[in-house]
């Protein structure tokens, strides 16, 4: 039996079955939490963003026109909510420990990989907001540039340019890090992925 689509569930909600919205929550809450964590680095704050985003999505469901996917529309709401939270809590958030990015699985040296992950996260966090958004959505959520453009409310070429600039800035920063170079040569990981994706987007 085929899984019911997001648009079918949305129509059920619009027809009066408000409880059906809980299916959308269960389907997308993990993805939304992952996206939120990329920006606020704090589980409690990220959970608040997810909750606020679903409330906003429910309240605005009548305005959803399905020109983009529901997931893209939901992520757009979450990113805008995260942006507002960051703006209001900028001073409070500056010293929060970073959340390590996914580097190589089954690391032989956990301490080294943790240090490398933290170093990568530091550089990602220093990217301009639009570049960081494009990078996170492309690499970690595997979204197309069309979807990223819809979420960021910008032209396709602008979304791709933000992603490219983010990769180039990361490559420039990471190439100066001796520890990352050694680690990349030995076990691969994010540094090699940046190199691959930079070559890909420039081709």
Topology readout:
Elements: H1 6-14, H2 21-40, H3 43-59, H4 70-88, H5 90-93, H6 110-125, H7 129-140, H8 145-152, H9 156-174, H10 178-187, H11 190-202
Key traits:
Arc Repressor Mutant, subunit A; 11 helices; 72% helix; mainly alpha; 203 residues; globular; 2 domains
Summarize the structure.
The chain is mainly α and 203 residues long.
List how many beta strands DSSP finds. 0
CATH superfamily of the largest domain: Winged helix-like DNA-binding domain superfamily/Winged helix DNA-binding domain
In the predicted model, the low-confidence regions spanning at least 5 consecutive residues are 91-112
**According to CATH, what is the topology of the largest domain?**
Arc Repressor Mutant, subunit A
Q: What class do helices, strands and sheet pairing give? A: mainly alpha
The separation of the N and C termini measures 41 Å
CATH architecture of the largest domain: Orthogonal Bundle
The percent range for strand residues is under 5%
How much helicity do the residues have?
A: over 70%
Silhouette:
globular
Number of helices: 11
Question: How is this structure best described in words?
Answer:
The chain has eleven helices and no strands. By secondary structure, the chain is mostly helical. The chain has two domains: 1-97, RNA polymerase sigma factor, region 2, helix turn helix motif (Rna Polymerase Sigma Factor, Chain: A), CATH 1.10.1740.10; 104-203, Orthogonal Bundle (Arc Repressor Mutant, subunit A), CATH 1.10.10.10. The longest helix is centred in the N-terminal third of the chain and has 20 residues, at 21-40. The protein is globular. The protein starts with 5 loop residues before the first helix and ends with a helix.
